[in-house]
Amino acid sequence: MASVAVMTAGAVLTGSGTPAHAAQSASIKVACGDAKKLVSAFKTANKQSTATIVLNPNKNANCTYALSNLWNGLNAGVALVSRGKNTVVQGNGAVLTLAPKADARVLIKVNAGVTTLRNLVLAPGSANEALWVKSGKTVLAGNTEARGGDYLPIESGATLEMGDTSSVHGHHTHGIYNQGGTLVMSGRSRVYDNHAGPGTDGGGVWNLGTMTMKDHASISGNSVQGQTGLDQGGNYGNGGGVNNKGTLTVQDQATITDNTATPRTTGGMGGGIYNSSTTTVPTGSVTGNKPTQCDGPKPVTGCTT
Fold it and tell me: Are 194 and 168 in contact (CB under 8 A)?
């Protein structure tokens, strides 16, 4: 069962012996596999200024939390909601997934504050989303993986920071869809082996916001397919690594390599980057992509086609 320690900061006791104002921080341990207590832990953390949720406290070799619950109201379809001011989830190698026949489609939705996911695997299943960055800032650290599923959305005004060898891989619409927020990849973080079919763009990342890659971050092995006459209209299926319609900056030995865009009747351009906006890359950072390194209506300085 969960072990909860709550510490107050400057609380004053009333005559009944209860604190006069809410607790400021919490440390919560959740036993391996106890999905019900994990939901309770998130609800407790959401009421604190700072909170740490410790999963798999005994560091078992195989530890999975299979979630089946649904949050209510505007968070319908979501298994876990994070909106505390500063919440850290220490996974200790645990896997979060959705239980068979679960009604939820999203494992974790970040609504506010700062949420750090450390040494955790998010594996929601093929038709679902691992993480929804609705608002605030989300940090993936300590080898955290978002593995499989539909795609990982970042909404306008929200921030996703990937570092410390974290990764997004195995998604089948895009790896990450930055809808107007901020994406920062650093610390050898990776977006790899994501695949987008006809009717969408950006196998690795579809960027409509601000995106920065640095400190050996990489986007590799992603793919996108162009369209045939039977697919929906428009010129989709471009940018195997990144389809950029926002601002993309690549620096500090970050790389975009070995991605593929497959041409069909339309689309299939820009194996590495398909660029419609502002992109800055160092010479030699975009390599090994097919059919071209970079393509699109706006040239990419530092990239050879």
Answer: yes
- Give domain status of residue 99, yes or no: no
> 3-state class of 36 per DSSP?
helix
196 is a domain residue: yes
Least confident piece of the model among 201-210, 230-239, 291-300: 230-239
H or E stretch including 206?
Answer: strand 205-207
What one-letter code names the amino acid at 171?
A: H
Residue with tokens 């207590």: 37
Upstream peptide bond of 124 is cis (omega within 30 degrees of 0) = no
Distance from C-alpha of 272 to C-alpha of 279, rounded to nearest angstrom? 12
Distance (Å, rounded) from C-alpha 263 to C-alpha 255? 23
pLDDT in tens, 52-109: 999 999 999 999 999 987 787 778 789 999 999 999 999 999 999 999 888 889 999 9
Is the residue at 60 inside a domain? no
- Mapped onto helix, strand or coil, the DSSP state of residue 186 is coil
Q: Where are the alpha helices (DSSP H) in 29-154?
A: 35-45
In a domain, 243, yes or no: yes
In sequence order, which ranges of the chain are alpha helices (DSSP H)?
35-45
Taking the C-alpha atoms of residue 10 and residue 29, their distance in angstroms, rounded to an integer, is 24
State the residue range of the domain holding 223.
158-305
SS3 content of the chain, % helix, strand, coil (to 5): 5, 45, 50
What lies within 8 Å, CB to CB, of 164 at 6+ separation is 118, 140, 141, 142, 143, 144, 187, 188, 189
Which pLDDT tens digit goes with each residue over 108-154? 999 999 999 999 999 998 779 999 999 999 999 999 999 988 899 99
- CB of 19 within 8 A of CB of 61? no
12 pLDDT higher than 50: no
Evaluate if residue 19 carries a pLDDT over 80. Answer: no
Instruction: Domain count for the chain, please give it.
Output: 1
